[in-house]
Amino acid sequence: MIGDNIKKFRQSSNMIQKDLADKLFVTAQAVSRWENGEVEPSITTLTDMAKIFNVSVDELVGNAVKEPEVRVETKYVYNEPVKPVLGVCEVCNKPIYESSNIYRWTTGRQQTGHVSCKECLKKKEEMLKQQKIAKSISRRKKSFWIGGLISGGWIAITIATAISNKDSSVILPNVGLAIVAFTYLSCLILGNNFIGEMTLSIFSWGFVRMPGVIFTLDLDGLIWLLTVKLLFWILGIILALICGAFAILLGLVLSVFTYPFAIIKNFKRPEEIDLI
What is the CATH number of the domain that holds 21? Predict the structure, then answer.
């Protein structure tokens, strides 16, 4: 009964469901459910709706009208401004009426015009934080077992070699190198420090663009071209190997001092990590 009356008064007021929804600050789906009898609006909503239709609440719910003069009290409703819908949240699909509650975000480097409310933004940030924490814990575990496996294997081989050769002098240096290797690999895996970026940056120094070669279009010129190109290629490989060796050596030394801070940061602030 109430749903039929809502539909009747809405149509008599030349409104569509969205028009009524905007005036009541609800969605068009809510109006549809009222008119289909799936749910009933609250008393407050019925009162606001009666003011919009310029009828009494009794007429709206189908009761007999006892005091028709009360209609005069609702004439001022049409002078009240209606809040415009600034956007619709793409996460929860709720309309956004306040500019302070709207958030626009992008995907990648291009402006995509996505819109969400601040509540959904907080949920998204919390979800991203949990993903970072899970990734950080996973990297910590990998640093332990990968670094430990390689370093432990190195130490085991060193001890076995020392026993077979009856030379214990090699144990201490190799144990030190194994520890340094563990800290270096762990820093690379943890990803919350500068060791990995520094290694790649220094290693990239070896990949330089060789100068062009001037040659003549004859047999001697082509042989000269191939010879110089081969020489440049060999020099490029040597330069890349030198830079790579220097990058790794510097990383090994600095990782000994960096690893304690990196592992403490992983435990205390695991969310400070890039999801790569």
Answer: 1.10.260.40
